[in-house]
Amino acid sequence: MNESNYIEIIKEQTQRSLWSIGNVTAGIPDKYWDKVYCEMPLWKHVYHTLHSLDRWYINPQRYCEPAFHEKDLNNLNVLPTRVLSREELTNYFHAVKEKIEAYNESLIEDELLQKPDGCKWSRFTLITAQLRHLHYHTGIIMGFIIAETGMWPQVIGLEQDIPEGEDFPYFE
Question: Is 156 domain-assigned?
Answer without folding.
Answer: no
